[in-house]
Design brief:
globular; 3-stranded mixed beta sheet; alpha+beta; 3 strands
Length: 104
């Protein structure tokens, strides 16, 4: 099972999401081929109703605390309550670090 699948399974068990999408975006960064370090998570859950963005992110970080101490290097979070979800979340920007940046 990939790390993205593990993350999705763990978040699904904790947040009972209406929608979840976990993508490994390591290929967009200056990391060794096959790395699983950079992730984008879109999570829609009633758990987030009446909570601020910071609180939502704290809940996800707490749920993934073991992974955040180990293999996860970067985590882009897009968290929504069901009534906020419009079916789309922002795309991640291109990596600007290391050899992936222009002129670098």
């Amino acid at each position: 099972m990939s790390l993205a699948e593990q993350i999705e399974e763990k978040l699904s068990a904790i947040f009972d999401p209406q929608y979840i999408d976990v993508q490994c975006e390591s290929h967009m960064h200056n990391v060794p081929a096959g790395s699983e370090m950079h992730f984008r998570v879109v999570l829609v859950s009633s758990t987030f109703k009446s909570t601020r963005k910071v609180q939502r992110h704290q809940k996800v970080y707490a749920a993934l605390s073991d992974e955040m101490e180990g293999p996860i290097h970067a985590l882009a979070l897009h968290t929504y309550a069901p009534d906020e979800w419009e079916g789309d979340a922002p795309s991640s920007p291109e990596c600007q670090g290391g050899s992936k940046s222009k002129g670098g």
